[in-house]
Design brief:
Layout (H helix, E strand, L loop, with lengths): L2 E5 L3 H13 L3 E5 L2 H10 L4 E5 L7 H9 L8 E6 L4 H10 L3 E4 L4 H12 L3
Parallel strand pairs: 1-2, 1-3, 3-4, 4-5
Helix pairs in contact: 2-3
Pfam family, one: Response_reg
Organism: Metabacillus fastidiosus
Protein name: Response regulator
């Protein structure tokens, strides 16, 4: 079964994404801030990690750098979700070690399609 971590501090968006992905059959862990996400990452294996750019405690950028230092997660696929969608923001995210970037707002269908594409790579 595919396991995904969603780290998103906006509760309504987090609930929408979790419900949408669970309806598609994915197993979802959720975190409301960067610290909670990091603890889950250290304790679990994930097929994909979805990170909000701006979160309390650790930002998505900080988390990516922390994730990439963990040997068991150096190859884990990471997608940043952000309303900061300037080319410079996307470049910063990808340079930090994210594999993918998705701009907010997005529809649930767009997210599902993107996740399916990512998980079917390789």
């Amino acid at each position: 079964m595919t396991k995904i971590l969603l780290a998103e501090d906006e509760e309504v968006l987090r609930m929408l994404v979790v419900d949408t992905l669970e309806d598609e059959g994915y197993t979802i862990d959720e975190a409301s801030d960067g610290e909670e996400a990091y603890e889950l990452i250290k304790e679990n294996e994930y097929d994909l990690i979805l990170l909000d750019y701006m979160m309390p405690v650790y930002t998505g950028l900080e988390l990516i750098e922390m994730i990439r230092k963990l040997p068991e997660h150096e190859d884990t696929k990471v997608m940043m979700l952000s309303a900061k969608s300037q080319a410079s923001d996307q470049e910063r995210v990808l340079s930090a070690g994210a594999n993918y970037f998705m701009s907010k707002p997005f529809s649930p269908m767009q997210l599902i399609e993107r996740i399916e594409t990512i998980l079917n790579e390789n």
